[in-house]
């Protein structure tokens, strides 16, 4: 299994999300992945992310959301990160605004890897200090470094 730091590239980090609502966040991430050549069809990805959100919000509380989807014909797992200083109503379980977003898109033929990566992202974001540092990190490089340092604390399985 690849670590989060191996998957997250600087070009997939949105330091300041422009979106102000849930649908906008999903669309913004989808457009980014399309622009970077990671997905062929941004609209299809938005649809799949919305379908997953309809099952229950991926906002897990503490200002965190991990929207995710399994995409047919995808060759490799994709991880993206975004943050919102103001916070976005992402229908979080604790009712509070969401500030930190990890997007996970995986091939539809490897559900085990999908679940392990979701768990790894959750583990990184459990640390309150890391969450606070991510909110204040200046630049994509600093964000990626913080995530990489926290990710390295947990052995690969």
Name the features:
157 residues; alpha/beta; Mannitol-specific EII, Chain A; six-stranded mixed beta sheet; 6 strands; globular
Task: Give unreliable regions as ranges.
Answer: none
Number of strands: 6
Reported for the largest beta sheet, the result is: 6 strands, mixed
Helix percent band: 40-55%
Tally of DSSP helical segments: 6
Give the structural class: alpha/beta
CATH superfamily: Mannitol-specific EII, Chain A
| Global shape | globular
| Computed CA radius of gyration, to the nearest angstrom | 14 Å
CATH architectural grouping: 3-Layer(aba) Sandwich
The residue-averaged pLDDT reads: 93
Q: Any idea of the CATH topology?
A: Mannitol-specific EII, Chain A
**Strand percentage:** 15-25%
The H-and-E topology, N to C, reads as HEHHEEEEEHHH
Report on the architecture of this protein:
By secondary structure, the chain is α/β, with parallel strands linked by helices. It has a single domain, classed as Mannitol-specific EII, Chain A. It has 6 helices and 6 strands. Strands 1, 2, 3, 4, 5 and 6 form a 6-stranded mixed sheet that branches. It is globular and about 35 Å long. The model has no long low-confidence stretch (mean pLDDT 93).
Quick structural overview:
This protein has 157 residues and is of the alpha/beta class. The protein contains six helices and six strands, in the order H-E-H-H-E-E-E-E-E-H-H-H.
């Amino acid at each position: 299994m690849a670590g989060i730091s191996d998957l997250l590239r600087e070009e997939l980090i949105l330091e300041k999300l422009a979106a102000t609502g849930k649908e906008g966040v999903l669309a913004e991430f989808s457009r980014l992945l399309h622009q970077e050549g990671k997905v062929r069809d941004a609209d299809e990805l938005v649809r799949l992310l919305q379908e997953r959100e309809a099952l229950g919000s991926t906002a897990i509380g503490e200002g965190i959301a991990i929207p995710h989807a399994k995409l047919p014909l995808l060759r490799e797992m994709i991880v993206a990160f975004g943050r919102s200083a103001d916070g976005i109503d992402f229908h979080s379980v604790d009712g509070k605004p969401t500030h930190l977003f990890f997007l996970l898109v995986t091939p539809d033929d490897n559900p085990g890897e999908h679940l392990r990566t979701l768990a790894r992202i959750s583990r990184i974001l459990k640390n309150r200090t890391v969450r606070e540092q991510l909110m204040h990190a200046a630049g994509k490089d600093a964000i990626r470094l913080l995530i990489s340092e926290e990710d390295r604390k947990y052995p690969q399985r």
